[in-house]
Design goal:
Layout lengths: L7 H5 L5 H25 L7 H20 L5 H29 L12
Helix pairs in contact: 2-3, 3-4
């Protein structure tokens, strides 16, 4: 093996056990339920935007989970975190601009030009 110290914990069976797997599943279901419930509860008026809001919160939550979970950092990991947060922020900002522009358009006319 090229890097045996990386696999030392895995060989003990503590990191990848059934208990750890189901704990991560439980955390994921809890996070998803909390994000959806709070998204719907807090944004009743903007229900059409709930998908964009919950997706943005999901990405930010996962970025925070990476920050909490990772023990040893490399500078490229920090750059990737910052880039991901910037990309998510720019997508959220651009979608807000598009939705405000589309909501200011007049409604379509009721007359049809078809014979």
């Amino acid at each position: 093996m090229m890097y045996p110290e990386l696999y030392k914990e895995l060989q003990k069976g503590r990191v990848l056990s059934y208990k750890t797997f189901f704990l991560w599943i439980l955390v994921s279901v809890y996070q998803g339920a909390a994000i959806m419930y709070l998204g719907i509860l807090l944004f009743k008026e903007d229900f059409i935007h709930v998908i964009a809001i919950t997706f943005t919160v999901l990405i930010v939550t996962e970025l925070l989970m990476v920050v909490i979970t990772v023990r040893t950092w490399h500078w490229l990991m920090a750059v990737a975190q910052i880039f991901s947060l910037a990309a998510t922020s720019s997508r959220w900002y651009s979608s807000r601009n598009i939705s405000t522009r589309s909501s200011s358009l007049p409604p379509p006319s009721s007359s049809s030009s078809l014979p």
